[in-house]
Amino acid sequence: MSDDIAFTHDGGIGVLTLNRPKSLNSLSLGAIKALLERLRAIATDDSLRALIVTGAGRGFCAGWQLDEGGVPGLPDETMGVRQAHLMQEYFNPVIQAMHDLPIPIVAAVNGVSAGAGVSIALAADIVLAADSASFVLTFAPKLGLIPDLGATWKLPRLLGWARAQAVTMLGDRISAAEAVQWGMIWRCVPDLDLRAAAADIAERLAAAPPGVCREVRQAYAAAQVRDLAAQMEFERLRQRDLLDMPSFAEGMSAFQQKRPPRFHPSKP
Q: Domains in the chain, ordered, with CATH?
């Protein structure tokens, strides 16, 4: 694994840190490859029950490192063709890997989140931000580009059409407080409390029934592309399976016995 991505875990909680603080954790080719590799490893680690994603230093992620030299490509290949290939091979799969991860993800946004950094933050299930954090989409006014890595799918659904279009076209910085007010993220906390708050949320998610956070994530994603009747049928079929799972049986027993449910057996 590359030093561009740091990873630690303790008690079922993993912490994945974008680790290029000198460049505000911008995503070089090496960094995005390492991030994808790490996410794929996390997906197969049965000891993990929740994941925190954050950035080292004073920023969360400044987005792609578009001026990176030495990126492989064909001699006659344009930058657009090369970047489109890298999106297909590495960048888009990172977002998909986060969406498919069997455990819940908490983003702890500790500073500026720009461009692709916004997309990575919003790919988490719950987004916490430090009071000093901010989100900015500079694609259109500064680069003549559109948001990517799923941002054009997420932002109108989170902010509404008017706000999503305005902040994209103007490139205005969105403060953490505005992001909460607009429904873009879950909560903002004092800077010094961010790690502890993220850990508390991760612990609560880790205690939930196995797989349920992914079920919720997939149910809400499905609802974006189905009509009411189709979504209710989706719900019916998922409840059919989930009601027969051990988690529901434990939850019912705990309710009847007036005790906290124990969805994860303790290790000897």
A: 5-206 (3.90.226.10), 212-257 (no CATH)
